[in-house]
Write a structure and sequence with these properties.
The protein has helices spanning 6-9, 29-43, 45-68, 76-89, 113-122, 131-144; strands at residues 10-13, 16-19, 22-24, 93-101, 104-112, 152-158, 167-173. By secondary structure, the chain is an alpha+beta fold. Helix 2 (29-43) crosses helix 3 (45-68) and helix 3 packs parallel to helix 6 (131-144). Bound molecules: zinc ion. Zinc ion binds at residues 115, 128-130, 156, 159-161, 167.
Length: 174
């Protein structure tokens, strides 16, 4: 199993932080959930799509850069582990991928920054709300299978924001 060398990957230069040489911004749940709710409330589906595509594009470049530094992680299994560790170590939560068929994936998240933040600020939702996680999943799969962003459709079947036990996603090529 490959492990991330966080001492060298996560750097601070005065007020600037970088991960794998890419600048990053760190925000608490107040900022992230307010941004999420504002985009949903003001733009509707367009706002949801914006959260999805932003997360997809961000992890797409971040994971490509990250994996290029770990050439020994060549198998899909190792690369998925690296992505899952990156998600967890970035404070986004716990997530794991299960292959269910030819390029068909079931992704489970029993714990998530966005879920905890949403429930703390707004309580139970009536619709799935993990748009960031859906985009992140799409970006990870696009990197691993050498596709461009936009290749994967990711649906959230169950969501802890709706008080389901776990967030469960399905990913398939569009
Ligand atoms: Zn969810």
């Amino acid at each position: 199993m490959c492990t991330t060398k966080w001492k060298s990957e996560l750097n601070r230069n005065a007020r600037q932080m970088s991960m794998t040489d890419l600048p990053i911004a760190m925000h608490c749940h107040h900022y992230n959930i307010n941004l999420h709710k504002t985009l949903e409330d003001t733009l509707g589906q367009e706002g949801i799509d914006l959260i999805f595509s932003s997360a997809e594009e961000a992890i797409y470049s971040n994971l490509q850069s990250h994996l290029s530094r770990y050439p020994k992680a060549r198998s899909i299994k190792s690369r998925l582990e690296m992505a899952q560790i990156l998600y967890q170590d970035s404070g986004m939560g716990i997530i794991y991928f299960e292959k269910t068929g030819d390029d068909q994936w079931r992704i489970v998240s029993p714990s998530s920054h966005h879920v905890t933040g949403w429930l703390a600020k707004h309580g139970r939702r009536n619709t799935p709300g993990c748009h960031f996680a859906r985009g992140w999943i799409a970006g990870v799969l696009a990197v691993l299978f050498e596709q461009l962003p936009g290749y994967y459709r990711v649906e959230e079947i169950e969501c802890k924001m709706m008080r389901h036990e776990k967030c469960i996603f399905q990913a398939t090529p569009r």
